[in-house]
Amino acid sequence: MKRSGTRIRTVMAEIQSRIASRTYTPGARIPSVRAMAQAMQVSVSTVLEAYERLMAEGVLSSRPGSGFYVAGPVAPLALTELGPKLDRVVDPLWISRQSLETSLDALKPGCGWLPPSWMYEAGVRKALRMVARSDASKLTEYASPLGYPPLRQFLSRRLAGIGVEAPPEQIMLTESGTHAIDLICRFLLEPGDTVMVDDPCYFNFHALLKAHRVNVVGVPYTPTGPDIDAFGAALLAHAPRLYITNSGIHNPTGATLSPVTAHRLLKLADTSNLVIVEDDIFSDFEHTPAPRLSAFDGLSRVIQIGSFSKTISASIRCGYIAARGEWIEGLVDLKIATTFGGGRLAADIIHHAITDSGYRKHMESVRLRLAEQMDKTVARLQAIGIKPWIIPQAGLYAWCQLPLGKDAATLARACLNEGVVLAPGNAFSQSMTAGDFLRFNVAQSGDVRVYDVLKRALGA
Amino acid sequence: MKRSGTRIRTVMAEIQSRIASRTYTPGARIPSVRAMAQAMQVSVSTVLEAYERLMAEGVLSSRPGSGFYVAGPVAPLALTELGPKLDRVVDPLWISRQSLETSLDALKPGCGWLPPSWMYEAGVRKALRMVARSDASKLTEYASPLGYPPLRQFLSRRLAGIGVEAPPEQIMLTESGTHAIDLICRFLLEPGDTVMVDDPCYFNFHALLKAHRVNVVGVPYTPTGPDIDAFGAALLAHAPRLYITNSGIHNPTGATLSPVTAHRLLKLADTSNLVIVEDDIFSDFEHTPAPRLSAFDGLSRVIQIGSFSKTISASIRCGYIAARGEWIEGLVDLKIATTFGGGRLAADIIHHAITDSGYRKHMESVRLRLAEQMDKTVARLQAIGIKPWIIPQAGLYAWCQLPLGKDAATLARACLNEGVVLAPGNAFSQSMTAGDFLRFNVAQSGDVRVYDVLKRALGA
Q1: What predicted TM-score, i.e. pTM, was given to this entire model?
Q2: By CB count within 10 A, which of A283, A328, B343, B447 is most buried?
Q3: Rounded to an integer, what distance in angstroms lies between the CA atom of residue B65 and that of residue B378?
């Protein structure tokens, strides 16, 4: 009997060690009693006893007629279940899906991008006709590992124009701006690392960082950039690995980083091992370029990313990463392993469109229209008691505060029922302290029905 | 003195707990002595003493004039450093980069894809001209979360044709076939999980799985599919979460899964909690469709993925995932978080090309040419002593064995110097037991210089 007891404990220990090493994962079916008995050269009754003791301990579970399982459910990565349950209306993923799904006739002042009629459609059509006549390899072959050289050369020149020295070998094309940040996170972060973001910040940063299972720390954003005292304190308290921000025009506030804040921020970053991702996606909306962290830093600890989805086309996926050489090497490996070749055709179309003389004129007119719409939107919102936090120098967004006691999520829910999609403040706020803010996209707020619906919902 | 000693130990404990919780990560600079003293309300000399003791213990390091750091380097994810160092010639990443980088005039029998002149170039040109005339939203707006509906409807019908029932709501478009597998891995796997692959298998599976930091177990592949006894034994021994395979035509062997193997494999999968990814990327090369795991299984535990890069264009990035409904829901969230909208234009171009009547004729001619090239390549290889493992029923690849005592990596290195890019067997082999094999792409092996170079290198 004693020897049989030893054998039972041996089988139990073996199973527990396989669970500990994740050879058997939660929810997995473990080998049948018979198979295990054969594999471990013990009797069927020994294994059965071991399994039953492990069931009594809650380590295993069984389903009638279907065998033994490691206790605990099979758990695929459910983004919606990581972190606290959110009201759907302020759930970043829900807002993204809503914006992407909503039918064309809905009014979308909460949407993050320009209406199709504001995009560089004529340039895209022309580029498509040009590309249709190019040689077979452009049309059918994979891109080179770094991506289509002429577009990288163009980006290198454009970056030089705002003071960022980045030779084409230090620029890698990606499938989008989001893809660029995702690759950088995969490259630099481990689950459990800490990442600093602006509070408020672009809401998809929250969804993206959730997928990386990192801790997120928010730093309050001021009209001239992040609050520098809070930034320094957060560096000390949390030693974050990465800080992700929009320079140029900030999403959602429309604020612009000042040179003195940029300088102080980089001095602080130098005291720790902080890497900064500067998302430069709104640069073509600026009237005069704001300071760039990547220009001050010289692409040492700052990585700049961008895309063309906000001005040329969101339908053509193309983004870029400009970073120090040895990081680009590692990022290329990671890109090939996870998406293989990049989109050569997309890069070629973007290159045609962006180097076309019409693009410059198109963006001049977009900037003028945006400035007009900014004035109109802010005036109309003020008329119904919704106040802008600042008057942005440029860009699409006005970050606005509701009258005292009004809740943006409640308002968003009411307006959605009337076909108006809003972007409530807490979707952008790590600390959930923007419950009385909304982000308005002025290019999507031209229809007066928006204000009728808002006014009615505010009155209710 | 005693109280000071207590304070020193408190500071030391605090720092070690921050390192343990990854608040301070390896290589990170920790707060200055002065800052820490202020934060912990102790004297500067207490902190200095604590830091110096931790340095003596090897927990911290210092750089003159630059402060204190957590010992250990900053470690971004270096794919080339995960796992054993490989000879570059059999390093999957190196082969991918080599194929993507090599100039047009190199001969590439080791390349994984068709030459540009074999692709559906005419169809792509026609599609581009059509798309250039479509409405603005197609040209400039994000795709819907699942992706361009007409292409999903087409895929649903095509899948029905090979016995896979997948309504369009169970199909999500991705940026590529590799992107599809990457999303599934992110969704289902944790670092440390075990994944089963065929030995040999498509080499980029190795690079991709490295990026996910999972354990990889290889199962020997036979001319009718994986070795079923080894498959069952591996299930028992390793309880893998996922099995990734090509059904239809297998890469690199050109073998075809038999119905009996498919059936046995799925029966074994049912005894554990195994999920199967079936990479169906070569389906349009088949003369008659081989059995599909997804058809036998009904998309319960099998996920099918595919793309259009092998027949229409690799320059236009588009792939798909067909899976059970609740998994598609989670995958959509993950896709939005990590790449935001999909490529609507790319999906539109692919849809035009693949539904064009010319595509069917084009593929008929490609299949005929491949069959001819298969015969020629095999005959030419046999003439210099290189033997095919099997004669594949269809597809691009011939998996061939070198004469006794010859090493494929050595041969690949010699041939590369003469402008011929080969694909040595061990790049495909988890167990590194294919050192005397090479994969030949028959569509890239038409030039007789290939055999001259091979013969010379074999003789040396």
Answers
A1: 0.85
A2: B343
A3: 67
